[in-house]
Write a structure and sequence with these properties.
It is a single chain. With 218 residues, this protein is an alpha+beta fold. The chain has a single domain, classed as Immunoglobulin-like. 25% of the residues lie in helices and 33% in strands. The protein has three helices and ten strands; from the N terminus they run H-E-E-E-E-E-E-E-E-E-H-H-E. Strands 2-1-4-7-10 form a five-stranded antiparallel β-sheet, with no helix packed on it. It is elongated and about 60 Å long.
Length: 218
């Protein structure tokens, strides 16, 4: 009788252990999904700023004027895990441009030490922004994660010229440029070469006037 009771008790104990293992196995995928979600790099914040005059961000704002060149975009991340951060600079509704025109696309891959990325954007050498409504779309590892909206307004001087009937031409999309690597000069793409020939002195001055680069922050 004791032997039968011991065998039954061992069988019950084995069944309990087996059932517990199955239950734990069922929880494993959820646990793994939670771990993946915790490691997922996301945007914590986006800040837009005027240039401070030294190539670094100055006053943060959501309202700019056409002469605010460049415009800085600071992206704060929730983690320093390596990730590819991409920014699309979009003219949602701007003078002389088609709605939702993507003026700039630039990306940077963090190396596991950065918790933020800083981009800057310029409409091209000697050009102004087209007045209107804009936004930046931020993608993390290919997925759209966040957006920030802002407005670029005409300066008082432009408004005065318009009142006199002198309307300046808006910036063309293919004249917008951005440098993609640190310590690399911006690569300008002014479109057609027609009418853009410069003297040697002008080219020398252009080389000496370095544009700000996109940088990243720890």
């Amino acid at each position: 009788m004791k032997i039968i009771f011991s065998v039954a008790l061992c069988a019950l104990f084995s069944l309990y252990i087996s059932g517990k293992s199955v239950k734990d196995e069922k929880k494993s995928p959820a646990t793994a999904a939670t771990a993946v979600a915790e490691d997922l790099v996301k945007v914590e914040g986006i800040s837009l700023a005027r240039d401070g005059g030294d190539g670094k961000p100055g006053e943060a704002s959501t309202k700019f004027v056409t002469t605010d060149v460049p415009i800085h975009c600071l992206v704060t991340l929730n983690s320093n895990n390596p990730a590819t951060v991409k920014m699309n600079f979009v003219a949602a509704s701007a003078n002389g441009l088609k709605p939702e025109t993507v003026l700039l696309t630039v990306s940077f891959k963090t190396n596991g030490k950065q918790t933020g990325v800083r981009f800057n954007a310029s409409p091209g050498e000697g050009n102004l922004w087209a007045a209107g409504k804009y936004r930046v779309d931020i993608f993390i590892d290919g997925r759209k994660d966040a957006s920030a909206y802002f407005e670029i307004q005409k300066t008082n001087r432009e408004l005065s010229k318009e009142a006199k009937g002198d309307n300046p031409k808006p910036t063309k999309p293919n004249e917008a440029v951005i440098s993609e690597e640190e310590n690399e000069e911006p690569s300008y793409n002014p479109g057609s070469a027609k009418g853009n020939r410069k003297s040697k002195a002008a080219r020398r001055n252009s080389k000496n006037n370095k544009k700000p680069h996109p940088r990243w922050e720890n």
